[in-house]
Amino acid sequence: MFWRPAFEVDLDRVLRPLKRGRGSLNVFTDERGITWLATNTVDGQGTLALRRHPDGRIEAAAWGEAKDRLLSGVPALLGADDDDSGFVAHHDVVARARRAVPGLRLGATGTVWDWLVLAVLEQKVAGKEAIRSWAELCRRFGSPAPGPAPERLRVPPTPMQIRALPDWHWHRAGVDIKRRTALFNAAGMAHHLEHAVSLGGLAGRHWLRQVPGIGVWTAAEIAQRAWGDPDAVSFGDYNIPSMVGNALLGRKTDDAGMAELLAPYAPQRQRAVRYLEAAGHRRPRFGPRIELRDYRAM
Q1: DSSP 285
Q2: What residue stretch is flagged as signal peptide (predicted)?
Q3: pTM exceeds 0.85, yes or no
Q4: CATH class of the region 86-298
C-alpha cells in the first residue's frame, strides 16, 4: 500500500514516543530505513512495516490478524488526524520551538494495551530499569511478529499472557509487586479499556483510571500514544516539570508550577511540551539523580 500525505512526514519524529532504544523490541527502524511495529489490537496481533520514499510517499505493508486494521490506521499513526491550527504560542521560546519543528505531528496508534504495559513499567523507576523490564517481557513472554519481520521484533505480551506469569518471572524481569498488580488488574479488563480510544480526551483518560494503579501520569502516557491526546500532560513525571520550567522560566519548577505555566495552552498543553522537547529542551543536568533500583535483587 502507498499513501501520499498532504504534509511532510518525519517517520522518526512522529514514532519516537513509541520507541525505547535498544530495549524497544516491538518498534524500531532497521538498517534499510524500514520502521517495524509489532502490536496487539482488538482484532488480534499484527506487524506493520513503514518506509518513506524520497518523493514523500509512505509505503506500508502489514501481516497477521490485525493486517487490515494496521493498514487503515497508517494515516492516523503518522499524524493525519492531528491539527495544531488552533495552537497559540504564549511564550517566545514555544514560538521559536514551533518554527524549528513545523512538521511536528502527534500520532495515534488506536490501541491501548501495549502502551499501558509500557507506561506501568515506567512508573516511579529509572528509565533504564523500565526499558530492561519491557525488553525482558517482550523477549521472553511476547510472541514472534507475524510476517517476514526481523527476528528481534516481538509482539508484547497479551493480557492473557500477563495474567499467566508466575511471581518468579516478574521478579526476573525486575517488576515489583505494585506494578505487577496494576498490570494484572488491567489485564482483567483490557478489552474494556480499549473503549478509551473512542472516548478520547479527558473522558478517555478517566476511563483508563478505572484500573487500580493507573493514575494521572500513566493515563496521560497512554493517551499520548493511543489517540495522540494534545492536552495529556504527564503530571508526576521526574523530568518534565524541570524541563518546562527551565525552558519557560529559566529555572526548574514542580507540577503545580508547570500546571500554571501550561494553563494558557489548554486544550493543547501536551503539544506545547512536545514542541519544547522536539526543539531540544531537556531537564537541567544538575541536582540529585533518581535512584536506580534493581528489583531483581530485592
Answers
A1: S
A2: none
A3: yes
A4: mainly alpha
